[in-house]
Write a structure and sequence with these properties.
- GO terms for molecular function: cysteine-type deubiquitinase activity.
- One of its GO terms (biological process) is protein deubiquitination.
- This is UBP16 hydrolase.
- This protein has four helices and 13 strands.
- It is an alpha+beta fold.
- The chain has a domain of 136 residues: Alpha-Beta Complex (Cathepsin B, Chain A).
- The strands form four sheets. Strands 5, 8, 9, 10, 11, 12 and 13 form a seven-stranded antiparallel beta sheet that branches.
- The radius of gyration is 22 Å and the shape is globular.
- The relative contact order is 0.19.
Length: 216
Amino acid sequence: EVSTDDPETAFCTLANREELNPEEGSVHHCLYQFTRNETLTETNKLLCDVCTQRHCGPKNNTKSEKKCVYTNAKKQMLISLAPPVLTLHLKRFQHAGFNLRKVNRHIKFPEVIDLAPFCTAKCKNVAEGNTKVLYSLYGVVEHSGTMRSGHYTAYVKMRAMNNHLSDLVLRGQSQALETEPVKGQWFHISDTHVQPVSVSKVLSSQAYLLFYERLL
């Protein structure tokens, strides 16, 4: 999608991301790195139609005469529409020569996460003046084992139905009302075995998939 936003605000976020100072090895650090501002130069220059027309005039009729102009540019991936349910998929493999290796490093993740530092200043479904976009953790998928074999288990929070979230999903209506995580009991599910666990047990797991619901 081509955007014609004011260059002065094109790279602005709902909350100041420079004040984050995220801890390395955390979900916050992953999001910070994924949404960082990049400069495209040399072989990564951007093909610019405006620059091409300015330097070469109107588009030529024959492809052989067409000359494309590339220019330096800035690039940043930001969230333009805050989802009702946020799913974070952690890459737990890396190439080691010709082999794939599983990454067993623990990645810290919070019970409540604020997406505002990673959202555009004009995020479509955030009320004007809001500087927080909060999400509460309700599910975690964990993988144990290696790349060749292993076992998936899940942590799920049993909680009351969130009517405000349902309104957002079904009708697109949103109104910020809560700032605390949804209360409930966590359970660990492994095949047919289900047992209650503490939130500290959940937060210490080796997450592969994280599921958050928007606090509304």
